[in-house]
Amino acid sequence: MKNIIEAMQWRYATNKFEVSKKLSDEQLESLLEATILAPSSYGLQPWKMIVVTNPEIRTKLQEAGYGQPKISEASHLVVFAVEKHIDDALVDAFIKSVSDVRGIPLENLAGYAGMIKGAIAPKSEEERKDWATKQAYLALGVLITAGAIEGIDVAAMEGFDPKKFDEILGLEEQGLETKVIAAAGFRASDDPTAQYKKVRYPKEHMVIEVK
């Protein structure tokens, strides 16, 4: 396992993937399990990952992604979609999960449930989607980092038509809405961007210490 700094130095915004090299089932499972463990507000996880390997669907998604080759060339495409309905039912399902996993009676969690519902209630529908989107991006960050540690390239992408993605993947019927996607696989040996020196501001520029 790479040191985290070494891993993040190694990763880059992969521009070209090796089409013939695929993630093993174990590698994919490791990435997904790590991402599921990503932090989210109240632990609600108001997002889902759609893992797409079907070549025909990937071709359609590439068209909806303005022709970007890595959508179809990477080993796997991961679509992060958020719940369209952030409501009491979503909170109740989460509280039921807490009850089941921790062995706490539902009635003992009523105050916790009420607190979460009270925090969400004043938000408009758009504010709730924006809030959920932030949680999805936290998960995306975990996916990218887990990939780097495992020597797997993960390229985050926003250049696509989300409504077309929703239509192609049938997400509307599932109450979901595409927000961001990630191509996962292995960099091609002839990807010139892999040779670029990483450009980041030094710590003195990026960190403000309050002592």
TrEMBL record:
<comment type="similarity">
    <text>Belongs to the nitroreductase family.</text>
</comment>
<keyword id="KW-0560">Oxidoreductase</keyword>
<protein>
    <submittedName>
        <fullName>NAD(P)H-dependent oxidoreductase</fullName>
    </submittedName>
</protein>
<keyword id="KW-0521">NADP</keyword>
<dbReference type="Pfam" id="PF00881">
    <property type="entry name" value="Nitroreductase"/>
</dbReference>
<dbReference type="InterPro" id="IPR029479">
    <property type="entry name" value="Nitroreductase"/>
</dbReference>
<keyword id="KW-0285">Flavoprotein</keyword>
<dbReference type="InterPro" id="IPR033878">
    <property type="entry name" value="NfsB-like"/>
</dbReference>
<keyword id="KW-0288">FMN</keyword>
<dbReference type="GO" id="GO:0016491">
    <property type="term" value="F:oxidoreductase activity"/>
</dbReference>
<dbReference type="InterPro" id="IPR000415">
    <property type="entry name" value="Nitroreductase-like"/>
</dbReference>
<feature type="domain" description="Nitroreductase">
    <location>
        <begin position="9"/>
        <end position="174"/>
    </location>
</feature>
